[in-house]
């Protein structure tokens, strides 16, 4: 079981909280965004599925919200194996260009290392996803290389750029 952070992860711009039923509209709208669609193959899931994955220790998904509790995006930790985990994130179009993803990934990385005992955090994205690679760089991740034909993606296969962050970084 992956616990919710207590107190919640937050800074003066973004708070990470559990998704709620009333967020479903914002969630589905985000999945329809062309930039999201271009870089992601995720299928929208429901609250119950997300909660089952958290209770099984597989994945924990957060809503990123502003001080007025408006949804700015989402972030997650997943793929917990042998002390490794992956970090994922996305923003609604109106929340991009303000450093929100950088802040959210930084908050999540510290929590993963300090509270979940993660020894290596991985961040992966498509070679053409420059904005996401810049998030990795701003958060201090090390680019480790390109995994060729790594993922099934939109009916074909996609290369993946691999970044990592260690507690000692
Ligand atoms: C990937 C994604 C989250 C990046 O969003 P982003 O807004 O570029 O990233 P951040 O929130 O970290 O903001 C950084 C930008 O804000 C600017 N910025 C403004 N104020 C800032 C601040 N206080 N701190 C940091 N950056 C700030 C930076 O200059 C940067 O812009 P630049 O890259 O043009 O220099 C977004 O493009 C997205 O949602 N894409 C679709 C989903 C996706 O691809 N997810 C990742 C899959 S691997």
Would you write up a description of this structure?
This protein is α+β, with helices and mostly antiparallel strands and 169 residues long. It has one domain (9-165): 3-Layer(aba) Sandwich (Aminopeptidase), CATH 3.40.630.30. It contains 5 helices and 7 strands, in the order E-H-H-H-E-E-E-H-E-H-E-E. The chain has helices spanning 24-31, 34-39, 47-55, 100-114, 130-138; strands at 15-17, 59-65, 71-81, 84-91, 120-125, 142-153, 156-165. It has a 7-stranded mixed sheet with strand order 1-2-3-4-5-7-6, sandwiched between helices. Strand 3 and strand 4 (84-91) form a beta hairpin. The two termini are 27 Å apart. The model has no long low-confidence stretch (mean pLDDT 96). The site of coenzyme A has 20 residues, from helix 2, strand 4, helix 4 and helix 5. Coenzyme A binds at residues 35-36, 39-40, 89-91, 96-102, 125, 129, 131-132, 134-135.
CATH topology (level 3) name: Aminopeptidase
- The mean pLDDT is 96
Number-wise, the strands total: 7
Number of helices: 5
Number of domains: 1
Helix content: 25-40%
What is the H/E string? EHHHEEEHEHEE
Which characteristics define this entry?
7 strands, 169 residues, Aminopeptidase
């Amino acid at each position: 079981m992956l616990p919710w952070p207590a107190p919640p992860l937050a800074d003066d711009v973004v708070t990470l909280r559990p998704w709620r039923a009333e967020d479903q509209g914002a969630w589905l709208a985000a999945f329809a965004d062309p930039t999201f669609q271009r870089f992601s193959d995720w299928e929208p899931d429901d609250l119950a599925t997300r909660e089952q994955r958290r209770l099984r220790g597989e994945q924990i998904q957060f809503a990123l919200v502003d001080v007025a509790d408006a949804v700015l995006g989402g972030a997650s930790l997943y793929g917990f194996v042998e002390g490794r985990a992956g970090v994922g994130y996305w923003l609604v179009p109106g929340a991009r260009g303000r450093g929100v993803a950088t802040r959210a990934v930084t908050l999540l990385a510290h929590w993963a290392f300090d509270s979940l005992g993660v020894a290596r955090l991985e961040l992966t994205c498509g070679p053409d996803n420059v904005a996401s690679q810049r998030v990795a760089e701003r958060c201090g991740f090390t680019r480790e290389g390109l995994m060729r034909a790594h993922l099934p993606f939109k009916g074909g296969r996609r290369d993946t750029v691999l970044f990592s962050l260690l507690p000692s970084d």
